[in-house]
Amino acid sequence: MNSGTISGCRADDDAGAIFIKGNASFLMNGGTIENCSAGNYGGAVKIRNTSRFTMNGGTISSCTAQQGGGVYVDGSSTFTMNDGSIASCTAVNGGNSVFVVKPSASFTMTGGTVDGSIALPYKVGNNTVYMDGLGTAAYPYQISTADQLKLFRDIVNGAGGQTQNRGAYAVLTADIDLNNEPWTPIGPDRDSAYTGTFDRQGHTVRNLSVTVNVKPGRAGLFGCVKDGTIRKLTVAGSVSCTANQGWCGGIAGYAMDETIENCASLCTVSCTGIDARVGGIVGLVDYNSRTLIIRDCYNIGKSPAEATTAVATPEVSADFYMNGKISNCYNVGEITGSGYVSKIAVSAYNDSRPTNCYYLSDTDTDLNGTAKTAAEFANGDVLEELKAGRNDSPWDSCQYVAAAKITLPVFKGQGRCS
Question: Is the pTM of this model over 0.90?
Fold first, then answer.
């Protein structure tokens, strides 16, 4: 198909406009398929068996189906999109633009544009899990269930038979409850650190349960992160490490040259091994980290350290002589232990010391932060300080946070705080 228009076609079953099957091939270099519909699969195009659809140009638009509003890919067929566009298509049960039904089928996108969801299947054990997106900046994975979050972790870690992609982009589209099932961190060590962008979009991961008992332990929702971005993420649950030299944080155990912003930890974080690093947000920031940024974050979880064996470190970020920036953060959690104890940061070069950071005054003292009373946290004083006169500040209002049992500043769109 090089030109022309197919418009207004309707199939009661499958393939509103074009049905490619057997070992056939269809090449679309131009033209338009529009306003077509199917009662079941493939509003514009359905591909099955070992057939092939290659789209080098043209437009598929305003088509509808139960699945695969634009294109439905079945069997061991392949859909390769090199150019063109799929726009304004809709599906009732997934894949507004593209729906790939079996792991044996495939969709490859090297160019063109898609403005709707792309649903792809993944083999997870004996089950098939569907997840929207390609893991790219333009088409990040869309994560709305615990199974999808586990799948994303396996993709980053190269585990469970998944092809590894440490730099995968992802967004959360719903709150996720991990039900206190044992969690393997995303990016479990420095050699396999997560390097992509993860955006929670105002949602929370609840009932995280991480226990790492092997050396070196890197514990958190993420184990190690590097050269990427984590934003708008709230995590609640427990994180612990019993191995020596463990690094534990609610968001990540280890960070290097990472941007972590608008994040909150409601986790109990603990490390009982020798030479531990414990932080509410991040356990350890690498000494060589030059561009790390932690901003507009808060911790309300407890971070107990074994008094006789662990080196206790801060509740926002733990490090020795950190290079990077921590700003506009607060901590109302508790930390105890011998050695280096701090509420904001242990020790940093002068130009890396935390700025505009606060902690609850009755949880000890900290030279790297400013003490504020519970009343000042509740009445808006700390909120205004955190906003720092910025029109684009993520800080919104003060709400009662059940996990802390006091009223605290929270982010815009954060919803229920528990």
Answer: no
